[in-house]
């Protein structure tokens, strides 16, 4: 009964209010007052849900800039470091967005070929193997070109097991770390195996 009573009241209110529907949509805007002096210089750079952070000197001024790959939106968000030497002051710069290739899963910027400029490691288009996009400076900007590996005749990064060349296999949810684990000057890859039970240590030898 209580429910019925409430339903009746609800129907009554709807009947009463519907004729005034057009009137109730008119209202005055009210001002929003900010109560802090804090400045957010990168407020329009976009929200971050699953960011991956890398460094590269985009504008060739000798200072590393910040590149964020936001996985949820599959987009690169570049920040130029405008800080004095030894300090960091990042400013979002949309003009650098267009230099990056269309990547959808993850992106780690590391110097693959040791030329001093970071390249992009990412999941291949087959969602199973790793691709590398090699960078080079050209006319004041940076261009990335997908590496074709002659030793495996493919675009996928491989390693040798018992004298056999195998592509590095990942699952679509894997996100490997790419660093020089054993300090021999060459990058290595740490990633889970396909069953996601073991962490594989893969040495990359240039
Ligand atoms: Ca820079
Ligand atoms: Ca490089
Ligand atoms: Ca190494």
Describe, in plain words, how this protein is organized in 3D.
With 206 residues, the protein is mostly beta strands. 10% of the residues lie in helices and 33% in strands. The strands form four sheets. The chain has a four-stranded antiparallel sheet, with no helix packed on it. The radius of gyration is 26 Å and the shape is globular. Residues 1-23 have low confidence and may be disordered.
Fill in the keyword field for this structure:
disordered N terminus, globular, 206 residues, 4-stranded antiparallel β-sheet, 2 helices, binds calcium ion
Task: Give the amount of beta strand, in percent.
Answer: 25-35%
Low-confidence stretches: 1-23
Ions, cofactors and other bound molecules: calcium ion
Sequence of strands across the biggest β-sheet: 1-2-3-4
* Average of pLDDT: 84
Q: How would you sum up this structure in a few lines?
A:
With 206 residues, this protein is mainly beta. It has helices spanning 2-17, 21-24; strands at 51-56, 65-70, 75-81, 90-92, 107-110, 119-123, 130-138, 141-146, 158-161, 164-167, 177-179, 188-192, 199-203. A four-stranded antiparallel beta sheet has the order 1-2-3-4, with no helix packed on it. Strands 5-6-7-8 form a four-stranded antiparallel beta sheet, with no helix packed on it. It has a three-stranded antiparallel beta sheet with strand order 11-12-13, with no helix packed on it.
């Amino acid at each position: 009964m209580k429910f019925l009573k409430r339903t009746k009241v609800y129907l009554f209110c709807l009947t009463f209010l519907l004729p005034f529907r057009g009137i109730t949509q008119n209202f005055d805007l009210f001002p929003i007052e900010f109560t802090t002096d804090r400045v957010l210089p990168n407020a329009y750079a976009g929200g971050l849900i699953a960011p991956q952070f890398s460094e590269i000197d985009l504008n060739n001024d000798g200072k590393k800039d910040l590149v964020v790959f936001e996985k949820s939106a599959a987009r690169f968000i570049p920040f130029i470091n405008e800080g004095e030497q030894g300090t960091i002051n990042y400013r979002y710069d949309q003009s650098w967005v267009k230099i990056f290739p269309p990547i959808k899963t993850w992106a780690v910027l590391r110097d693959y070929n040791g030329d001093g400029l970071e390249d992009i490691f990412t999941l291949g288009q087959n969602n199973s193997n790793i691709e590398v996009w090699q960078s080079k400076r050209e006319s004041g900007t940076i261009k990335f070109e997908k590496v074709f590996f002659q030793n495996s005749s493919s675009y996928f990064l491989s390693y040798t097991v018992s004298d056999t060349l195998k592509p590095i296999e990942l699952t679509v949810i894997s996100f490997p770390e790419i660093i020089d684990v054993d300090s021999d000057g060459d990058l290595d890859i740490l990633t889970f195996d396909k069953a996601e039970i073991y962490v594989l240590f893969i040495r990359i030898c240039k």
